[in-house]
Design goal:
The chain is α+β, with helices and mostly antiparallel strands and 139 residues long. The chain is 33% helix and 30% strand. It has a single domain, classed as Heat Shock Protein 90. The relative contact order is 0.20.
Length: 139
């Protein structure tokens, strides 16, 4: 049996703490240790920050979260928004650099999400929903 919880919040940076707490509760319920809970929170924070900054670009909108704790020891997080879509393949690949002079802007958030989670699936312009990001972490 799965436990599913949902939360809808305005797409504003002042909601990130509430989102982190909501996700952490699910991750703890799934049995993840503190270090992994923190990594999952970071992945969701990056995804939500990108939705706020890039999908909505400062306009009013909402982020719908669904956290599913699976019996077999996994956590599924779905984020839904109605903002602008993007092509994840066009985001520059993050490469740690030796100096700030060589640093490129962009790609770190997506890199952190991919490092923290086991599966990530972007779907854009889903009829009746908008954009959907599904992230899964296995125990």
């Amino acid at each position: 049996m799965s436990t599913i919880r949902q939360l809808v919040v305005p797409a504003k940076h002042d909601q990130l703490a509430q989102i982190a707490s909501f996700v952490a509760h699910g991750a703890e319920e799934a049995g993840f240790e503190e270090g992994l809970v923190n990594r999952i929170e970071l992945a969701v924070d990056e995804a939500c920050s990108n939705i706020i900054d890039h999908a909505y670009e400062g306009t009013m909108g909402f982020i719908q979260l669904e956290v599913t704790v699976e019996v077999r020891g996994s956590l599924k997080i779905i984020l839904i928004d109605q903002g602008h879509s993007f092509d994840p393949n066009e985001v520059p690949v993050y490469k740690p650099c030796q100096t700030l002079d060589n640093a490129r802007i962009g790609g770190l958030g997506l890199h952190l999400m991919r490092q923290a989670m086991d599966d990530i699936c972007f779907e854009f312009n889903v009829p009746g929903l908008g954009n959907r990001l599904t992230m899964v972490k296995y125990l």
